Amino acid sequence: MPTDPARGNVIELAPRRDARASAGGPDRNREPRTLIIRATLWCADREIHRQVGLNDAMSLTELHRVLSICFGFHGHGAGAPWSFTSGTQTFRTDGCVHDVLSRPGDIAIYTWGLWRMFVEVIESYPRDRGTPRALCIGGSGSLRPGGVGPVDFDPADINAELTGRETIASTLALVDEDAADLINRSRIFDFIPLLQALDLARPVQLDERTRAILDGLPLEDGPEARDAFLVTVLTLSSLVDAELGDNVIEATMAEIGWVDDDDGVLTADRIRDLCTGSLRALAGVGGYGAGALPPVERLDLYRYLLRR
Q1: 200 with 151, same domain?
Q2: Which domain holds residue 97?
Q3: How many domains does the chain have?
Q4: Do 47 and 80 fall into the same domain?
Q5: Low-confidence residues of the chain: pLDDT under 50
Q6: CB 91 within 8 A of CB 111
Q7: For the region Disordered, what residue ranges are annotated (predicted)?
C-alpha cells in the first residue's frame, strides 16, 4: 500500500467542526455515514497500515477501541493516555468521529501513550442497516504489543473481535445450520450485522406453496453446489448491486476453498451455474432474476431460507 510522509501535514478542519467538538456528543438530527479510513503507524523498521470501515456517529472512545483492536494493542497499556488531535485542537473523548473526520482528505493524529498514528478519510457514503459498525477491510504489516516482533495480519481475527465473539455465537444460533457452518468456515463475519438486520425471528408472510418450495432448497446434492447456493442467498439478502454482489460471492467461495478446474478463483457466473436448479426454483417464487418481487417481499424469502 503506498505511503506518503507528506500526509503528516494535518489538514485544518472547518470552524463549525471546532464548535461541535466543544459541545461534544452526537447530533441526533444527523444521519450517520460510513467512513473508510486509513490509519498508518510508523515504526523504526516498518510501516503498519489498516483500512477500516466505520460508523461516523460512534464516539471517539469507541474509535480508540476499534483502532487498538485493528493494530493488535487491545488489552495492552489500557491506562496510557490517548487523544485525537488536528492542528492545535485536541478533541473531547466523548465527541463523535464526525467531529474530527467527516470528508475524504480529512486527517487527524491519534496518539496513545508512545504510539502516534495518522488517520485519513478515504471515502464517505450513506449507511444502510446491514452495514457493520466497524470492520477492518484491509491492511499490511503487524507488530506484537511490547515490540516482541512482527506477526501475521489476520483481518478475520480482527473482525471477529470487533464484532464480538458472543454476538457472533448468539446470531449464528438463529441461523440455518448449513449457513452458520459456511460462515464459520469462511471466517467472513461481515455477514453477522447483515443477519442481525434481517431479524430472522421476524414472522414471514409466505403461502404454503412458497414455503414448500423453499423447504426443498437447495436441490443440489454436492457440497460445492450447496455452498454456492447458500453464498448466493446470503449475498442476495444484502440487496447490494450486481457488481458488489459478484465480488462477495467470489470472495466467500474462495475463502472456503472452492476453486475452478485450473485452481483459479471461481467466477460469480460459474458459482451460480453450480446451483442453477435451486436458483430457478427461487426465481419461481420471486426471490431471484428478472421477475423478482420487491425488496421487502424478497427479504421474507431470504429470512425463511436462512433461519434455523
Answers
A1: no
A2: 5-163
A3: 2
A4: yes
A5: 1-23, 145-150
A6: no
A7: 1-30
